[in-house]
Amino acid sequence: MNTGEWIRKRSLLSGEKTAIIFEDNKRDEKPTYSFTYKELNERVNRLANILMKKGIRKGDRVACLCHNGNEILEGYFATSKIGAIYVPLNFRLESPEITFMLRDSGSKAFIFQDYFSELANSVYASVSVSPRNYIVIGGKENRWESYEELLSLSSPEEPELEEEVDIDDPQMIMYTSGTTGAPKGALMSHKKTYYNTFNAQIYFDLTSKDVMLVVMPLFHSGGLNICAVPIIYQGGTAVIQSAFDPKGTLALIEKHRITAGLVVPTMLNFFLKKGDIDNFDLSSLRTLVIGGEPLSVSLIREFQKRNIAVRQLFGQTETSIQTCQMSDEEAVEKIGSVGREVFHCSIKIVDRNGKEVPTGEVGELILKGPTQMIGYWNNPRETENTIKNGWLYTGDLARMEEGGYVYIVDRERDVIISGGENIYPAEIEKVYASHPKILEAAVIGLKDEKWGEVGKALIALKEGEKMDEQEALEYLNGKLARYKIPKCVEFTSEFPKTASGKIRKADLRKKYSFETESNKI
Fold it and tell me: How far is CA 187 from CA 98, 226, 322, in A?
C-alpha cells in the first residue's frame, strides 16, 4: 500500500467528512471553499489520469509551484497513486533557482499557479518539460492547458496502473539550499512518509475530530509532512490558509475551532504584536507546535500566560522535521530543550570520530530510522557525507541532558534561519563572486527580534573599485529569493583567514554578535 491509497481509503471510510477547508487570502475577494474526502479523492483521480494520459509513469518527476491550496495536495496524492515523484517548489524563489531545480530533477510535467505564469514563461526555453505538460492553475493562460478544464474532462475513477507502487519506492524530492551554494534535492520514500505520519499522529495525539491549521508553506516539510498529510491520514480536517496573516490566521482558529497547528517563532511574534491576539477566542487550540528555529523563553511565557501550550519541534527537511519532540507538560518543565527522540527514530550525539559523547557534552546530533531520506537526488557525494553507516549526520551541535532531553547549542554549518526559512550563506556568496567589482564576500547571521536572524554581507572590493550598500543589495535582485537577500552590507579591506586561506566565519560571527537589525552599523 502506497501513500496515494490513503486518500482512496478515506473516501470510502469518511466520504462525507470535510477533508479540506481553504481560504485563499491571496485574492482580493478572499474566497473560502471546502472539499469532502470523496470530492478530494475524485479530484486526485482526475489529475492522476491526466498525468498518465500525458505519459507520466512510475519514477517520473512532476513539479508544482503554487501558493498554499488544495491543488498542492491533489498533486501530492495523484503522483503518489501512480508512482511518480512529486517535486514541490518554493514559490519564493527566482527564475534561475526554479530552472536549476526543474533541470536537476528532470521533471516531465510542471503544474503552476497563474500568479507564476511569467516565471513559467521565463524557464520554458531552459528546461526539458514538454509544452503539453505545462498545466496552469487559475486565470486564462492561452499558451498552457488549464488545470480545472483538464480535470473536468478527466475520469474520476481510480487510475489503472501499469506497474505496482509500493512502500519502498521514491515518493518526493524536496529541495533544500546546499552549503556549497547549489540546492540539494532530498529524495524521500513512501515508507518515510508512513513513519513520519505515525510520529506526527503520536506527537499531536491526533483523532478524526481534530482540525489542523496549515499555514506553513506546503512546499515545506512542516506544512506538508507534519500538518496536512498526517491530519488527512487520520481523517480529520485541514484548514489551509494561502498565506500567513496574523489577524486572519487567528480568526481561522476561532472560526473553525482549530485544535492543533505548526508555526514558526516569527508567526508567534506577529500574533502578539500585530494580531490583536487577546480579542480572539482560541480556547479550542489544544497545542501549537513551533519549528524552524529556537523558541525564546520570553515568547513561551507570553503564550503560557494565555493558557496556550506551545512546544518546540526540531529536525530538518531530510528527516521531515521530526527528530525531537516533547509534550505540553515537558515544554513548561524543560524550557530551552527541543525534547527527546521521536517514537520512530533513534538519535545520538557524537564527536568528530562518530563516538557517542557523555551526557551533557556537546557533539553533533545524528539520527537513524525509517524517517530519514533515501539520499540526495543526483548527488552521491553529498549523500555519502551526510549518511554514514546508516546514520544521518545533521550538522547541528547539541548536548543531551539526563532523561534524553536535547538542547541545540549551535549549527555546525553556517545556515541562517530567518522567519523559519533556511538561508545558506554559500549560496549568496556564490552570486557575489560573479560580480566584477567584488574580490571576496562572506555572509553571516545577526540576531533579530522580529525574524530570529537576518543576513549581513561583508564584502571586500577589488583594488580601485567603489560600491555602496544599495548597489550590493540590488545585485542580488532576480538572482535569489527576496528572503535570502541580506538586510545590511558592510565593506572591509580584509577577512580573518585560516592557514589554508578560508575565511574564519566564527571570528566574524564573534565580532558582529552584538549587532541586531535594529542597531546595525
Answer: 17, 17, 16
pTM: 0.84
What is the reported pLDDT for 517?
44
With a pLDDT cut of 70, the percent of the chain lying above it is 93
Q: Is residue 116 within 8 Å of 65, Cβ to Cβ?
A: yes
Residue with cell string 469518511: 14
Question: Residue 317 above 80 pLDDT?
Answer: yes
Cα–Cα dist 251/4, whole Å: 32
pLDDT for 143: 83
Alpha carbons 438 and 290: distance in angstroms, whole number: 39
Burial 426-436 (b: 16+ CB within 10 A, else e): bbbbbbbeebe
pLDDT at 181: 59
Instruction: Return the pLDDT at 510.
Output: 83
Q: Which CATH number fits domain 317-411: 3.40.47.10, 3.90.1580.10, 2.40.30.10, 2.30.38.10?
A: 2.30.38.10
Q: What is the pLDDT of residues 437-490, one digit of tens each?
A: 998 899 999 988 888 899 999 999 988 999 999 999 999 999 999 999 999 999
Q: Are 72 and 64 in contact (CB under 8 A)?
A: yes
Position 139 confidence tier, pLDDT thresholds 50, 70, 90: confident
- The total number of residues shown for the chain amounts to 521
Residue with the three cell numbers 506577529: 270
Please give the radius of gyration of the chain, using alpha carbons only, rounded to the nearest integer: 23
> Which pLDDT belongs to residue 458?
96
Query: What distance in Å separates the CA atoms of residue 495 and residue 188, rounded to the nearest whole number?
Result: 40
CATH of region 416-512: 3.30.300.30
Per the listing, cell 568528530 goes with 352
Residue with cell 469532502: 36
- In the block, cell 496573516 appears at 245
Q: Burial level of 452, CB count in 10 A (0-12/13-18/19+)?
A: buried
- Tell me the CATH number for domain 4-243: 3.40.50.12780
Domains of the chain by residue range: 4-243, 317-411, 416-512
Is the pLDDT at 396 greater than 80? The verdict is: yes
8-state DSSP, 356: B
Tell me if 218 sits within 8 A of 72, measured CB to CB. Answer: yes
Mean pLDDT of 55-78: 97
